[in-house]
Amino acid sequence: MHKAIGIFDSGVGGLTVVKEIIRQLPGEDIVYFGDTARVPYGTKSARLVGRYAVQDAKFLMGCGIKLLVAACNTVSAIGWEELKREVPVPVVGVIEPGCAAAVKVSKTGKIGVIGTEATISSGIYPEVVSRLDSTVEVMCKACPLLVPLVEEGWLDGEVTGLVVRRYLSGLKGKVDTLIPGCTHYPLLRVVLEQEMGEETVVVDSAGAVAGCVKELLREKKLLAPSGGGGRNRYFVSDDREGFSRMARLFLGEEAIVVEEIDIEKY
Ligand code: DGL
Question: Mean pLDDT across the stretch 27-50?
Fold first, then answer.
């Protein structure tokens, strides 16, 4: 049997990447792990995030995967070296694809990035963008309240609108492109677009990651033969019910079977 693509995140955020991979690569099987017992990662230290990422990867490796997607900016920012050291299959992170898409789209050369505290204070976004184009200016803002709002399913409404407005006030009108630098944030896309206004493009970072996965699978000759796919499995470390509800709502699939595992064993 063909091996699956392994994808993990601290919670439901990585489903934004799953959705795009299903769309762009319908022939592939996916095995997803959401670390719902230990979410959020974005407020934790590099030591802890690195350890969590390796455990998440080890669990997925045990499921027999051909490629791993760290569908979490925080892991891609501060747990990357540790993860890459431990994982024998190709690993795709979420930072480069989002940066490349933003650089391509921006006309004024002024890009905004929002993300978790850990991602923003790592300085990884300005670093990667300047590697791609040293003339581009990057303005960053940490938005620690957005992950709990998404995990709670508050994707719009008054409270979410106010929080988003407060966080984006320093970026609005100053950038023409916004990178949602956290895989939870595409779920807030409508609110982000409303708040930034028509002049600003909110980058489809999940779509860019899926494009990268497709490219890498093709290059490594690992693409699944056509006609298969869709045997997707979902695992969490806690709150199976809450995750299923969000996953069903977001992926629009009727029956999603979610299994619970003890991630500390890995
Ligand atoms: N969705 C993840 C990210 O992209 C993690 C957010 C969190 O757990 O704080 O950063």
Answer: 96
Q: What is the pLDDT of residues 187-231, one digit of tens each?
A: 999 999 999 999 999 999 999 999 999 999 999 999 998 777 778
Q: Which domain holds residue 159?
A: 95-205
Do both 102 and 120 map to the same domain?
A: yes
Pocket of ligand 1 contains residue 116 by CB under 6 Å = yes
Would the CB of 39 count as within 6 Å of ligand 1? yes
Count of domains in the chain? 2
Strands (E), 98-222: 110-115, 137-142, 177-180, 201-202
Same domain, 102 and 200: yes
40 lines ligand 1 (CB under 6 A): yes
CA of 181 to the centre of ligand 1 (A): 9
Instruction: Out of 16, 39, 41, 56, give the residue to mutate to test ligand 1, the one with the largest number of ligand atoms within 8 Å of its CB.
Output: 41
117 alpha carbon – ligand 1 mean position (Å): 10
pTM, full prediction: 0.94
Q: Are 21 and 210 in contact (CB under 8 A)?
A: yes
- pLDDT tens sequence across 141-155: 999 999 999 988 899
**Axis crossing angle, helix 95-105 with helix 124-132, rounded to the nearest 10:** 50
Which CATH number is 54's domain given? 3.40.50.1860
